[in-house]
Amino acid sequence: MTKSRIEPGGTIGILGGGQLGRMLAMAAAKFGYRCHIFCPDERSPAFHVADRVTVAEYTNEEALLAFARSVDVATYEFENIPAETAKLVASETYLRPGVRALEVTQDRLHEKDFLNKSGVHTAPYKAFQTAEEFEAAFAVIGRPAVAKTRRFGYDGKGQYMVKSRRDAEAVLAVTKGAPAILEGFVKFDREISVIVARSPSGDVAAFPVSENIHTNHILDTTTIPADISDTIEAKAKVLATRAANALEYVGVMAVEMFVNDGSGDIVVNEIAPRVHNSGHWTIEGAATSQFEQHIRAICDLPLGETNALGKIVMKNLLGKDILGAEKYLEDPKAHYHHYGKQDPREGRKMGHVTWVNTEE
Amino acid sequence: MTKSRIEPGGTIGILGGGQLGRMLAMAAAKFGYRCHIFCPDERSPAFHVADRVTVAEYTNEEALLAFARSVDVATYEFENIPAETAKLVASETYLRPGVRALEVTQDRLHEKDFLNKSGVHTAPYKAFQTAEEFEAAFAVIGRPAVAKTRRFGYDGKGQYMVKSRRDAEAVLAVTKGAPAILEGFVKFDREISVIVARSPSGDVAAFPVSENIHTNHILDTTTIPADISDTIEAKAKVLATRAANALEYVGVMAVEMFVNDGSGDIVVNEIAPRVHNSGHWTIEGAATSQFEQHIRAICDLPLGETNALGKIVMKNLLGKDILGAEKYLEDPKAHYHHYGKQDPREGRKMGHVTWVNTEE
User: Fold this and answer.
1) In B, what residues contact A, Cβ < 8 A?
2) Which residues of B touch A337 (CB under 8 A)?
3) Which residue range is the domain that position B30 belongs to?
């Protein structure tokens, strides 16, 4: 492991076989990289576009070592792979982003502590685990507040909206006694995210800020440009860059933020140490896609341009929404994406559509 | 085989595993299609992005039948697969484009006869096989002229520039006694090509005309728009559309033409019943890529928009040209493509670069 650059034509390992891994593999293929994808689920959509696959659990050390030895660099498409898995892979090959980014972002408490120490503000929060600790936290944070498990939450899972200190029982039914945090509710007008890339040598490039609308805790639409001032846009990019530098991050990460239009305040909600749903618009809507940018960063190639090519809207297709392809395929400004998943169960991310309005 | 449409998520078979099959598979994946690629060469670059591969000869009937039965529609990335292979596949699944397109375009004599009968003019030509027939053909065609084998020629292989009737011996050394044609040389100022798509229901969409520069019979650069008048641009598209309709073609095909600026004459040089090197610019330079358009056509989805997004230049990277990636990756207007081939031998198509100048 003397040279940091992985030349085009090399092999990239991806932990995780969902749509993010799939789109990473497709971007890698543009540069001639072969992808080896490791995922426990044999029906992983990323397998359809991979050169090589390993179907094994993330705890299978033998399979992980063989995987790590077969690639020139490894990355991951989701932040909930066990830290031990990451460490094992990192012992045999480059793991980008590294173990630290995973450890920090896998735990909401560590993440918030880290961000605030790095000068990136979050909503107020306090850790708890037991009913007594919850009540003590509630006394500090007040209401409204959200209880969240520290680990393994996504799309609103493991969360509970707290209204009273008497909610302790209901909260613990959701957290199941696992370490959790109580987070103060901040008043905000809009949710935004910044997709930022950082190279091994410390070059940083942020995409234009996107504005996100969630429905039932799942991303519904992303719009670019966000309806924010230039000052807020610049400030959001500074915060994302600060977080990436503080983590000595390598690759693409997403920073979700809340914006208060009146005060101009921005608080960071959370970091995803990976390509992100709110960056899918970049495939057709930016000079470089977030997937290509991640490949460039982890292979130590020059980062690409990040400018948007117009006004962009990205909409997720959940469950049976995927079946109505016709109207998108007939729309000259629409780019339809289908992730190749067979079962369109309710709420499942099956695909997305991006509209690029270059004339507006 | 009652429904003509293959819905997103279905399976597409591709005969041939080169860079064209690779880019077809990547386009198919955007719509959730799985690709099964059939190719005798186990090092095929298209295999890197395929869901399933079959390594077998094109004469292996058992393998071909199994392949055909495993897919919802089959297509091919090159025109020299045996007609018997195509017929066998077509007996079990949709083959698009069909057997007729292959039969016509595999043989230069049939192709030229067909085109001229369809109102699409070519240079003058005459068939020959023996030395006597060559001399008789030369007496009609005159000089300069080019002798070409009727079948299996590409990138200038199987061709001989004729200067005299006494060249008979040299010509037969190249044609090796195989059926051939002697083609008259037409005076032209530029080479252009039209990439045109036709759907099963007869919808036709042509991309903007591209201007091509060949070096040593291999495409070097493609530029859009071509330096031709609107009248010539329109006429070229009419000719390509006429050829596609006459063939009852389904899919994307390329029509190469010679243009005489002074007279405004266009003659068709040849047809490629497949996606084409002179259409690679469409990946980033057009609203829909030729690869996505081919997938749309063979799956009977609506054809996509074909407008160019600016002034475009595509350059092939041959042999060791592929190794200088850095300068392309640093150029904000350049899109670098590497086909994943390991051996950069001289003249081999290893990748390409497309520059999209949206501001000019």
Assistant:
1) 7-9, 22, 25-26, 29-35, 47-51, 287, 296, 301-302, 304-305, 309, 322, 325-326, 329-330, 332, 336-342, 351, 358
2) 30-32
3) 11-95
> Is A271 contained in some domain?
yes
Residue A134, H or E segment: helix A131-141
CATH number of the domain at B174, please: 3.30.1490.20
Between chains, do A29 and B26 touch, taking CB under 8 Å as contact?
yes
| C-beta separation of B134 from B149 below 8 A | no
Is residue A250 located within the same domain as residue A199? yes
Nearest partner of B340 among A157, A51, A180, judged by Cα:
A51
Tell me whether residues A33 and B340 touch, CB distance under 8 A: yes
Our measurement of the distance from residue B130's CA atom to the centroid of its chain's CA atoms, rounded to an integer in Å, reads: 30
Same-domain pairing of A131 and A35: no
How many domains, chain B? Answer: 3
Closest CA to A249 of A110, A117, A75: A75
Q: What is the dihedral of CA B216, B218, B222, B226, to 10 degrees?
A: 60
Residues B253 and B352 in one domain: yes
B214 found inside a domain: yes
The pLDDT tens digits for A9-47 are: 999 999 999 999 999 999 999 999 999 999 999 999 999
Specify the pLDDT at position A196: 98
Same domain for B289 and B200? yes
- Decide if A276 contacts A290 (C-beta within 8 A): yes
Alpha-carbon distance of A48 to A129, in angstroms, equals: 42
pTM to 2 decimal places: 0.95
Question: In this complex, do A338 and B305 lie within 8 Å of one another by their Cβ atoms?
Answer: no
Which chain B residue's Cα is nearest to A284? B284
Cα–Cα distance measured from residue B83 to residue B22, given in angstroms and rounded to the nearest whole number: 22
CA-nearest residue of chain A to B358?
Answer: A309
Instruction: Answer whether B358 sits within 8 Å of A33, measured CB to CB.
Output: no
Pick the residue from chain A with its C-alpha nearest to B52: A48
ipTM: 0.94
In chain B, % of residues over pLDDT 70: 97
The verdict on a CB contact (< 8 Å) between B336 and A7 is no
Tokens representing residue A322 in the block: 């995927």
Cβ <8 Å between B338 and A309: no
**Could you tell me if B22 and B129 lie in one domain?**
no
